[in-house]
Amino acid sequence: MPTVGLIGAGLIGRSWANVFARAGWDVRLWDADPGVTQAAPRLVADSLHDIARHGLIAEPAKAAARVSIAGSLAEAVEGVDFVQESGPETIAAKRAIWAELDVAAPVDIVLASSTSAIVASRFTEGLKGRERCIIAHPVNPPHLVPVVELCGADWTSQSARERARQVFLSVGQTPIEVKKEIDGFILNRLQAAVLTEAFRLVEEGYVSPEDLDHTIADGLGLRWAFMGPFATIELNAPAGIPDYCGRFGAMLAELSRDPEAKAIWSQGKTEQVVAAWDKPLGADAVAKKSLWRNSRLAALAAHKKQQK
Predict the structure, then answer these.
(1) Phi first, then psi: what are they for 173, rounded to 5°?
(2) What is residue 300's predicted lDDT score, i.e. its pLDDT?
């Protein structure tokens, strides 16, 4: 069985233990706080039994038995096949931890960090093995939300990027490629844009916080549960994304206070997105896929009704 070394046994580290253990990996956990390290196996076992009640794992006890603790960082990564670091969110802490990891971990494996905003170039530049270092930013909790943002520095090798992608695919996650470094990566920048507008709309008296949340939970979020924004707008105009941009681009540009919005929604810019969208749909395909969307929305509506 492959072994993962998990550095940091807080909420994210324990959630990663759930992901790897239920996928059949042996898991070795270590945290700088000995109390956190000692408590981690029990908490991971609890989380595995929790998801078993929803049919997400058949044998939680067997998975829990694959989780062990280490007495030091070096012991946690000795002979492992992959490392996932989930330590403190400061550059100083990252530099200290990664200097140790670069020396202690096998030289031929990938080292990944769960950091939510710090790009790899800020703490891996001086490492001898910097070409194998990559960001693998999850969404909390990664054992229930599968997307993982993979973002390397300029010196991260293509081999390391591909190996990281294969590891996360093998344990049931959904890796996405961040093509070049950007603070906050993709998910947090999208989240920041939505939250900034949400706060503005409430602060300026347009809507209550509760109704704003209903707008997402009972509106946009229902479609976004199984489609991204580009797939969503593709089905909101008869001829797909180009048709949507032609119909609604000017209106959306006017709604934004961002001075760059008009440029974003200009024809040349939207054509770049359309060209990058590798699965354009014609009118018949849009109509057919809309039926699929409606079926998924009905199933989601039934699920939410049961929860109430």
Answers:
(1) -90, 175
(2) 80
CA-to-CA distance for 79 and 209, rounded, in angstroms?
50
Contacting residues for 179 by C-beta, under 8 A, at least 6 apart: none
Low-confidence ranges of the chain (pLDDT < 70): 257-270, 272-273, 277-280, 308
Q: Which residues of 10-23 are buried (b: 16+ CB within 10 A; e: fewer)?
A: bebbbbbbbbbbbb
The beta strand positions in 153-293, using DSSP E, are 174-177
pTM: 0.87
Task: Give the three-class secondary structure for 4.
Answer: strand
Give the whole-angstrom CA distance, residue 46 versus residue 163. Answer: 30
Q: What pLDDT, on the 0 to 100 scale, is given for residue 269?
A: 63
3-class SS of residue 252: helix
pLDDT at 241: 87
The partner residues of 151 in beta bridges, in order of sequence, read 135
Query: Could you give all domains of the chain from N- to C-terminal order, each with its CATH number?
Result: 3-177 (3.40.50.720), 225-307 (no CATH)
pLDDT of residue 268: 65
Predicted pLDDT at 61: 98
Phi and psi torsions of 150, nearest 5°: -100, 120
Q: CB neighbours (10 Å) of residue 82? A: 25
